[in-house]
Amino acid sequence: MLIQSDIAVIRQQKRWVRGRQLMLTILLTAVMLPALAAQSLTSISHRVTQEGVVLIEIKASEPFKTLPASFSTYSPSRIIVDIAGSSSLDSKAYAVNQNGVGDLRIVESADRTRVVAQLEKKLPYEISIDDKSLIVEIGKPQSAAAAAQTAETSAESAAESSTDVQSGANGRLSLNFQNIEIRSVLQLLADFTGLNMVVSDTVGGNITLRLKDVRWQEALDIILQTKGLTMRQKGNIMMVAPTVEVTARERLEAESKISLEQLAPLKTKIIKVKYGTARELADLMKTEANLFLSERGSIGVDKRTNSLLVHDIPSSIRKIAGLISQLDRPVRQVMIDSRVVIATDNFARDIGIRFGGAGIQQNGDTVFGANGTKSALWQNDPTLGLAPDTLAVNLPSVLGGPAGGAINFFVGSLGSWLMQLEISAMEQEGTAEVVASPRVVTTDQHPALIEQGTEIPYSTSSQNGTNTEFKKAVLKLEVTPHITPDDNIIMDLVILKDRPILEVIGGEPPIETKRVESTVLVKNGETIVLGGIFEEEKSSGSDSIPYLGKIPGLGRLFRRDRSDSLKRELLVFVTPKILRRTERRKY
Known about the structure:
Elements: H1 4-36, E1 40-48, E2 54-60, E3 69-73, E4 78-84, E5 86-87, E6 93-98, E7 101-108, E8 112-119, E9 125-130, E10 133-138, H2 144-161, E11 164-167, E12 172-181, H3 182-193, E13 196-199, E14 206-215, H4 216-226, E15 229-234, E16 237-242, H5 243-263, E17 267-272, H6 278-286, E18 298-302, E19 307-312, H7 314-327, E20 333-360, E21 367-369, E22 374-375, E23 391-395, E24 405-414, E25 417-436, E26 439-443, E27 448-462, E28 465-483, E29 488-500, E30 511-523, E31 528-544, E32 559-579, H8 581-586
């Protein structure tokens, strides 16, 4: 057992230890108190120097030990200064609006205050400290020493705090933060985008992130997903809240809307359809894919007035009326002008020859021809030429019949024989052009048809006997236009040009058909050639006396030559034109 003296000694030692601990605590407090004194911003003022430099002075409660970190951005143009400590300023925004400097915004985070200067364009700047004042000179070219000092100080400050934000082009930025409040990051993004942001009171916590050269939308999505948050945007206002809270609120709103619809009174409204068909619009409203009516709603059609009778709650009626006002609009019209051109060019040539001779015996008027027949020479008249049965070669031109031309001349005489030669020739040349120009007007995406021609009867046999049916031989234009948003026209075209042939084959007249079917894209008012068919027929031949007609040179006297050439060409031109209202009335 300890004696009383030992107990007293132990108690005295404990009191001495506690006394030393208390003294040490007092000394440490006295030493650290100046260092732990919290710095706070107290005021901001600005003025413009004679050189046009905007000078901003920021005063704090404690002297500045080091130059605060600062940087600038290009898009949007800003100068950002990060100051350690809090803010005691009365306002979060200060208007400058001088020499390219807009306003100043104050943003607070856990252990720092950010001063953001909005600029109209990129401007040089320089910062300096003077005891409790931080001076930012905007528009003053930065000296080399000051630039190096600013860069070094900014780098040291960034290394100590491990925080940074930089802005790039096209809405891209870089973020580098450690253990920063999520609400502060959202505030930075709101400042960067210029959008209004409302953050729920339940949003809290810190985040560490390092993002380099990313779009601000991507950065916001990553931050929201990491912290289980959801954003909803209405106009230029963003609302941020936990996903569970947003889901519960939207579910409650949906249930409340359904309850209100079930309790809302039913009303009836007559909607007049001006340009469309009431039945088609009613069917569109009632399809499952376009269910615009509520569970208690109905829609009817009055064909006489082309109107819709909508019986539903007011919200559904407004929705249907707004939709019909957008759909019930005048449909634009298109005039399609087509030309079917059929050109024909023919050429024919025929060259023939006739020659013969006759002799006279002196014992009378008897004449012997060169072909061995007996006839009267010149028919007792030398001016009449040779008689037909005195011809040795009779191959005249047959082209054109009596219209052909011939040249007669005497070759000479051999004793009592008289020789005569006749050369006949004929050329035929002709051109023909058939132009058919059907024209039709129709509305956008509606087919149109125009045709003109004849119907040819023909007989068909069946068990019931012989029947007479008709087949069309017409000029037809069938088209379905579609007007594109840039006023071009897509057309599905069928153009038909039939012609009956007079020659009957098997008791029935055949029909010559020319048909073009195509889909084309044409600019408004321009002409396009759909296609063409070019045909050319050439033929040649000769009639001659065997063997003699093939003798070189001399064989021409015993031969008739002929040649034919026929050219046909089919061209189809189409010109679409969108009709304006004034043009439709005129047409």
